[in-house]
């Protein structure tokens, strides 16, 4: 094809004509560009292939002009590109509704039974107490193992003691006979009595044993027994007649304080021994029912029976020998005078309370709080005698037919008790601990309270007739009683 034919073809294709007479600029790099497709709304037209030549450096090209290069002598055989068609996106298919089973199957349709796989057995849900919200079955405790236990404790406790009137007095030599040993006189000193006795600390022991009745350790039984050594206070004094020793009393006939001489110069020689003793014993058996527990602690309800014994005794014994005519009896006559007051308080009642324990590794703390309600049987025994020259007669000084006898009565009483302890785990089945206890009995009869210091001297042996007031009397006084102290113990579990 000639250049003229090429120019004509370019003009037919819509390219501007290029003058053949003009000098041609140096060839520039060409860039083949595919014409953009017409708008979708325009009728279809085949794409036009043209060459766009970059303008030479420094040339001024109008914004509306397009610099085009001469078409090549030979055009490549490029197939026509169809115009891009708009892409139609198919709508997402609407999911079919789930098939619903018919409300009622026809009678003639047989539906094969589908076997249901066996479900794994679920563990039984734990049960809980409605009030505390704690499980009814306890896990294995982290304390000592074993369902049987025993405890041995050494006790060091003190009680409230008993009140005593003055029982033995002394006075310096030279004291007038009428004032010798008489209460209220400036020369009289009380040697025994006039205060509380048996309120000192004393040793004792307690034994406790129990067992769990079921594997869950929610039901068990426990029993205990304790005793304190007998507390004893007293005095023993004697003289050959050179010292002044007396036993004071109140002369009910004359209405003034008086005294019976035990030793006085030229009158009598002798000795006086006075003792006050007290003893406490207790025990009980209870059922245990778990209220709350976890791996390192538990709280149990305690319900059972409680026994408590408190016993006192006060005795005074005189051994006298008349020295001369001033004694108003034959010199050398002997007298043995005995007074004895004894009380026994036996409490029987039902107990209810709680006990608990908490463990922290090898250490543990525990406690018990309970109250017992019941009756106490109070027995008071008063007796005395006077032996003159080998002949015995009823009654001593503070014991006469007016009050000698055995008295018994029952009364309501309350026994609250508090116990605390803390200790250390020594081995898997043994531990040691220390503790504190407080125990209270609301109604008791003490021996010292049953002594009436009022005496009618006309009733003293040897008595010829009964004249004047019938005293001493039985006071029938009651009070309360308490114990408290510390303890050291060992516990074994099997």
UniProtKB/TrEMBL annotation:
Transmembrane segments: none annotated. Residues 1-21 form the signal peptide. It comes from the Bacteria. Residues 69-104 are annotated as: Disordered. The keyword Signal applies. It holds the Pfam family BBP7. Residues 73-83, 92-104 have a biased composition (Pro residues). InterPro entries: BBP7. Keywords: Signal. This is BBP7 family outer membrane beta-barrel protein. The lineage of its organism: Bacteria, Pseudomonadati, Planctomycetota, Planctomycetia, Gemmatales.
């Amino acid at each position: 094809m000639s250049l003229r034919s090429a120019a004509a073809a370019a003009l037919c294709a819509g390219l501007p004509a290029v003058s053949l007479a003009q000098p041609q600029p140096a060839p520039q790099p060409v860039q083949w560009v595919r014409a953009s497709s017409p708008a979708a709304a325009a009728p279809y037209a085949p794409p036009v292939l043209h060459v766009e030549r970059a303008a030479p450096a420094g040339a001024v090209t109008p914004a509306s002009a397009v610099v085009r290069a001469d078409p090549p002598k030979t055009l490549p055989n490029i197939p026509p590109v169809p115009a891009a068609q708009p892409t139609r996106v198919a709508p997402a298919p609407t999911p079919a509704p789930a098939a619903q089973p018919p409300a009622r199957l026809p009678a003639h349709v047989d539906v094969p039974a589908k076997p249901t796989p066996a479900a794994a057995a679920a563990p039984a849900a734990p049960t809980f107490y409605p009030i505390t919200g704690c499980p009814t079955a306890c896990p294995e405790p982290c304390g000592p193992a074993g369902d049987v236990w025993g405890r041995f404790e050494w006790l060091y406790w003190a009680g409230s003691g008993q009140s005593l009137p003055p029982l033995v007095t002394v006075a310096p030599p030279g004291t007038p006979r009428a004032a010798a040993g008489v209460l209220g006189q400036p020369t009289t000193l009380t040697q025994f009595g006039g205060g509380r006795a048996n309120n000192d600390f004393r040793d004792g022991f307690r034994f406790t044993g129990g067992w769990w009745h079921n594997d869950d350790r929610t039901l068990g039984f426990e029993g205990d027994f304790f005793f304190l050594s007998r507390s004893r206070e007293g005095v023993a004094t004697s003289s050959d007649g050179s010292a002044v020793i007396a036993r004071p009393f109140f002369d009910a006939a004359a209405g003034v304080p008086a005294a019976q001489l035990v030793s006085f110069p030229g009158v009598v020689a002798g000795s006086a021994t006075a003792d006050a003793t007290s003893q406490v014993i207790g025990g009980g058996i209870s059922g245990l029912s778990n209220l709350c527990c976890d791996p390192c602690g538990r709280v149990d309800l305690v319900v059972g029976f409680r026994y408590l014994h408190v016993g006192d005794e006060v005795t005074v014994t005189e051994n006298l020998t008349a020295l001369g005519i001033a004694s108003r009896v034959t010199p050398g006559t002997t007298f043995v005078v005995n007074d004895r007051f004894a009380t026994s308080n036996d409490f029987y009642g039902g107990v209810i309370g709680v006990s608990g324990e908490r463990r922290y590794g090898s250490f543990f703390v525990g406690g018990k709080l309970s109250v017992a309600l019941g009756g106490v049987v109070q027995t008071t025994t008063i007796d005395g005698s006077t032996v003159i020259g080998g002949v015995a007669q009823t009654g001593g000084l503070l014991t006469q037919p007016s009050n000698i006898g055995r008295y018994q009565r029952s009364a309501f009483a309350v026994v609250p008790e508090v116990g605390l302890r803390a200790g250390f785990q020594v081995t898997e089945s043994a531990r040691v601990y220390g503790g504190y206890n407080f125990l209270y009995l609301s109604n008791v009869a003490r021996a010292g309270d049953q002594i009436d210091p009022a005496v009618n001297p006309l009733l003293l042996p040897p008595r010829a007739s009964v004249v004047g007031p019938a005293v001493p009397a039985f006071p029938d006084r009651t009070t309360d009683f308490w114990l408290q102290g510390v303890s050291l113990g060992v516990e074994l579990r099997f």
